[in-house]
Design a protein that fits this description.
By secondary structure, the chain is an all-alpha fold. It has one domain. 83% of the residues lie in helices and 0% in strands. The protein contains 4 helices and no strands.
Length: 133
């Protein structure tokens, strides 16, 4: 369940950036770089927490595994929405929003593809061992 809540929170943060609800104002280049670094650390923290959760995922909760997978797609859907806004809207994304979507999309892709594979592989492996015993 933690995986799903974390994915929803990360998707909400990305959506706030895309909609312009969170747009840090940088007076200097250094301040802008600190804003981007903070964004990168948030994406890295999301990826790390999802990785820890994927390793700790229990094989006894198969419904939780599938729910976690479905909710892990939320940040990718926000990134897809941002691409649609960037492509078809007269209001283009700012550089900060574009960088946020690139970093957020990379973190979400790692979560969906790598960690979901790891979770399902671990779950399947434990299920096969239980059947043999």
């Amino acid at each position: 369940m933690f995986r799903g809540l974390l994915s929803a929170a990360f998707a909400a943060a990305l959506l706030a950036v895309v909609l312009g609800r969170y747009a840090p104002q940088a007076a200097t280049v250094e301040q802008a770089m600190w804003n981007v670094m903070t964004l990168g650390l948030v994406a890295l923290g999301y990826t790390a927490l999802q990785g820890i959760n994927a390793i700790r995922q229990s094989a006894n909760r198969e419904q939780g595994v599938f729910l976690g997978l479905v909710l892990s797609f939320l940040p990718l859907l926000v990134v897809a929405y941002a691409v649609a806004v960037w492509q078809y809207s007269p209001n283009k994304l700012t550089t900060y929003q574009t960088i946020a979507m690139i970093l957020g999309g990379a973190a979400a892709a790692v979560d969906v593809f790598l960690f979901s594979w790891l979770t399902f592989r671990t779950s399947r492996g434990l299920t096969l061992k239980e059947r043999r015993a």
